[in-house]
Amino acid sequence: MARDRLLAGGAIWTLDPTVGVAEAIALRDGKVLAVGSNAEVRAAISADYDFIDLAGHSVIPGICDAHIHLLWSALLADQIDLQAVASFEQALEIIRRHAERLPADAWVLGSGWDHSLWQRDWPTASELDQVTGGRPAFITRKDLHSAWVNNAALQRANISKFSNDPDGGSIGRDSAGEPNGMLFENGQLAVKACIPEPSAAQKEASIQTFIKHMHRRGITSLHVPEGPDCFAAVQALYGRGALEMRILHHLRMDLLDHAVAMGLKSGLGDTWLRFGNLKIFSDGSLGSATAHMLTPFDNLPANAPHPYGIPMLDREDLFATIDRAIANDISVIVHAIGDAANRTVLDAIEAAIKANPETLQPSLGTGPVAARIPNRIEHAQVLHSDDIRRFGQLGVIASMQPIHATSDITLADRLWGQRSQYAYAWRSLQASGAILAFGSDAPVESWDPWAGLQAAVTRQRPDATPAGGWYPEQCLSLNEALWAYTVGPAITSGEQAIKGSLSVGKVADLVILDQDLAQVANDQLAKVQVVQTMIEGQTVCEG
Predict the structure, then answer these.
(1) Which domain holds residue 468?
(2) 249 in any annotated domain
C-alpha cells in the first residue's frame, strides 16, 4: 500500500462550496482522504506519510477539457499550423516550405488559417497550386467548417464544374461556375475521402504524445467528440494500461442505429473511459458564415450564398434523431452556433423529453457514477434572449469554449452586430441556472486551458483589447471559470460524485501551480505554469 501524501503550505482551491480554499489536503490510495485546516488534515493521516511543501503556491482540481478533438489535434501537431498567421503572403511561404520537405506524391495538410486576418476574400485553388509543387493540398480554416484545397486535390476527388453541392455543404465556385478551391461543410468530404489514413500505431503514438503535453498544463480529463478511429486508438491504449487520461468519448450520429441495436446507453464504462452522447451537427460556424441564424448575418456581400447560414439537418430530421436517441437512453451532444440553431435544438430536446417520459431524465445532483449523462449543446455561441433560460429549465448543459469569444470578437461584431450582446453569454446562462462546461474545441483554438481561463474572466484578447473587455457583463470570476473547467464537466459526464472538486472520497486528480493563484492578475492567467499534475495521487507530470 502506498504511503499517505500530505500537501500543505499553500492554498487548496477545492471547488467544494462546503470547504472553499483549504490549508491542506491528504491523499490515500488514489483518493482524497482529508481536506481542510492543517490540524484537521494532520489528524486524519497515518504517522508515516510523504510531505509536499507547497511553498505558498496553489493546488486546484485536475482540469477537464470538455470539448477537444483528441486524435485530430494529435495528428495536426505534425502538419502545417496557420494559427494567427497575419498575412496571406506569410501563409503561402509557410505552406511552400512545408511542401518542399514532403515526397512528391504526399498530401500537403494543415489547418488554422483565418482569412479575416488577411484583409481579403477566400483564398483560391490556383494560389495554393503555386506553392504546393503539384502535390494535392487540403488545409482547413481555423473553425474546420471550410477547407482550402488546390486543383490537384479537386481532381483527386473528381470535383468539377459539373459536380452538384452535397447535402449539408457547398463547393465554392468562380464566376464561370468552376470550383475555386473553397469547400464548405460537407463539401469537404469528397476530398477528405482521398487523403491516406494514418496507421493505428501512428494514431496511438500521436495521442500518447499529445496527452503528455496536456498533463503539462494540468489537464486530467477530456470529453472527445470524434469518430470510431479515435475511440479505437483510445481503447487500445486503455486495454494495455497506457491511457493516462480520463476520457468521455461521444458517438458519431451515423452510428446511432448500431448503438440502439446493441443496447448501448450513455454512461457505459468506468472512470477512465466512458461512452458519452450522440454527436449531432445542427449548423456550421461563425467564421465560415454558415451558422444558422434567425435573421440574416450583418454585412455580407449582396451575392452571399447563404445569408441565414446553413442548417446541417432539416428540422424534421433533427427532431427525429434527437427523439430516437433520448428514447433509447442515449443523451445528445449537439453542435449549435447560431441563434436559430440553438432554438431548434432546444425545441427538439424539449419535445423528446416530453415524448419519452419513461426514460431516465438528466440528473444534475450528486448521484452515482452511473447517473444519466445530461443532454448538452456545444458552443451555444449566440442566443436569442428568450432561449437563455431554457438551458437550465431543460437541464441542457451549455458546453462552451471561452477562447472562441476573444478570437471571434471582430467577426462577431461584423456579422452579428448588436446580437453579440447575447454571444458567449456565460454570465447570463449561469444566472439562469444552466451548468457551464468549458473546453477548447482544439484544434479550432488553442487547447491551453489557462488561455481559456484568462478569456473567461477578461473577455479580452492577449493584447488586452478591447479595453475593459468585450461585453464585460458576461465575464466570470476566476472561481466560477475554474468551476466550469472542473465541476461543470464532471456533472456533464455524470461523474460529479467522484471527481471535479477536491472533496473527501473523490479521486485525487489535482494540479500544483507555480504561484499563489489568488495573487495572479486576470490578464496574466495564461502565464501560470504547472509544477506537478497528479491522477489518482500519482504524478504524471512534474517540473
Answers:
(1) 277-492
(2) no
Q: What does the pLDDT look like over 64-86, one tens digit per residue? A: 999 999 999 999 877 999 988 99
Residue 365 has pLDDT above 50, yes or no: no
Q: Are residues 85 and 134 in the same domain?
A: yes
Q: Residues 281, 285, 287, CA angle at the centre, nearest 5°?
A: 165
Q: What are phi and psi of 284, to 5 degrees?
A: -100, -120
Q: How far apart are CA 364 and CA 348, in angstroms?
A: 20
Q: Classify strands 146-149 and 31-36 as parallel, antiparallel or unpaired.
A: unpaired
In a domain, residue 223? The reply is no
> Alpha helices of 77-171 — where are they, by DSSP H?
88-100, 125-132, 151-156
Rounded to an integer, what distance in angstroms lies between the CA atom of residue 105 and that of residue 320? Answer: 44
Spatial contact of 508 and 536, defined as CB atoms under 8 Å apart: yes
**Residues 476 and 534 both lie in one domain:** no
Tell me how many domains the chain contains: 3
Please name the helix (run of DSSP H) or strand (run of DSSP E) that holds residue 38, with its range, or none. helix 38-44
Residues 301 and 386 grouped into a single domain: yes
Q: What residues contact residue 383 under an 8 Å CB cut-off, 6+ apart?
A: 339, 342, 422, 423, 425
Average pLDDT, the chain: 94
Residue 463's CB: how many other CB atoms inside 10 A? Answer: 7
* Stretch among 79-83, 332-336, 528-532 having the lowest mean pLDDT: 79-83
Q: How many CB atoms lie within 10 A of CB 526?
A: 17
Residue 360, pLDDT score: 54
Statement to judge: residues 463 and 529 lie in one domain: no
Enter the DSSP assignment of 523: G
Residue 356 lies in a domain: yes
Q: Is 26 within 8 Å of 35 (Cβ atoms)?
A: yes
Residues ≥6 apart with Cβ < 8 Å to 186:
166, 167, 168, 169, 312
Query: Cα(230)–Cα(70) distance, rounded to whole angstroms?
Result: 7
CATH number at residue 129: 3.10.310.70
Quick one: 44 and 153 in the same domain? no
Contact 31, 537 (CB under 8 A): yes
pTM for this prediction = 0.85
Helix axes 315-327, 339-355, angle to 10 degrees: 40
3-state secondary structure of 348: helix
Q: Could you identify the residue written with the cell 494543415?
A: 110
420 and 320 together in one domain: yes
Question: What pLDDT, on a 0 to 100 scale, did the predictor assign at position 369?
Answer: 39
